[in-house]
Amino acid sequence: MYCGNNIFKPKGGDNCCMTFVPKLPHKVQYLASFPYSFVTKLCEKTAREKFVGGRPPYDRELVFFLLLMKKVTNWSYRTIGEMGGISHSTLIRANTYFLKKHVYEKYFVELVKSAYKKGLIEGKYVAMDSSFIHTFSKDGELGSEGWNEFKEGYGFKLHLLIDCQTKFPIALIITNGLAADCTLAIPLLKRARYWLKQCGYVLADKGYDDQDIVNWIVKSLQAKASIPIKKVGKRGKSYTWEGAWNNFQQKAKGRSLKKSIYNKRGSIERVFSVLKRVYHLGREETRGILNFAKNVYLSLICYCLSLFNNLDSN
Questions:
Q1: Where does the pLDDT of residue 293 fall: very low under 50, low under 70, confident under 90, or very high at 90 and above?
Q2: Gap between the Cα atoms of 312 and 119, Å rounded
Q3: Domain boundaries, the chain
Q4: Which residue, of 4, 48, 86, 98, has the fewest CB within 10 Å?
C-alpha cells in the first residue's frame, strides 16, 4: 500500500552518480500490505460536518498507517511525520481523534470478525488475565486512581481475553491499576460472547476464583472454568476435614482441575510479553489513562495484523 519507493538524489543534480531508494524497515513491511479502507469509512463526515466545511483533511489511511508504524518502531512523532510528509502535531491530534471517535475500538472489532471467519478464533480454549503497566512518571496520573501495594507503584491495567490455540485477542477492557481481576471477568466474557459459541474451557488464574464467575461460565457459555481453587488460609476452631472436603466438592462443580488444560493458560502470558517486548507497550513517554488506551489499541492492532500476515504467508 505505502511502499515508499521514491528516489531521492543528493545535491548535484542529474550529474551525481548516487541515488538513494528508501525502503520501509523489515519489521513494518507487513503493515503496508493491508488495506485500511475501513478507517476511511469510520471517519466519514456527517452531513452537518460537511456543511460546516473546513480544509480537506489528510488521507486517513496514511495517517493510520503512520501511527501503526510508530508503534512498531517506537520512533518519535517527528521522525514518522517527516517520513510521511505530515507534521508531528497532526499525528498527535489524529491519534486522539481516532480514540475519541472509537475508530481504534471499531477497527479492532472488525479484525476480530475477520479472524472468526478465517478460523483464527476457534474458541475451544480461551484464557483471560490482566497485565499491570506502571505509569511513565512513576507517580499518580489521571486514571491511575491510587497506589497498588502488590505491584508497588501507580499504573493501569489491560484485561484481555484470547484464544489459547491461535493467541488471537478477542476482547479487552482498560481500567485503573486498582481494579480487581475478578470484577472484570464477566463483563469481559460478555463482550466476547458472540465469538464463544463453541467454547469448551475458560482458563484463568486464582485471581478469578469466584463462584459467581464459574456459575456464569457454566450457564451462559455451557463451558467449564479451568480456575484453580484457592487454599484455605487460617483454620478456625470449627474446621474439620469432612467439612473442607464438602466445601471443595461444591467449589469444584463446573470446573476442570486438569493440569494439562490449565497449562494452556500460558498463551496469554506470551501475548502480554509480545505486546511489551515487540510493540513497546508500557515504554511510551505518555501520561494518563487515555494515552494508555491509545497505546493498547495500537499495540493490539499491530499484533493482530501480524497474525493475519503469518496466516497468509503460510
A1: very high
A2: 12
A3: 13-100, 121-313
A4: 48
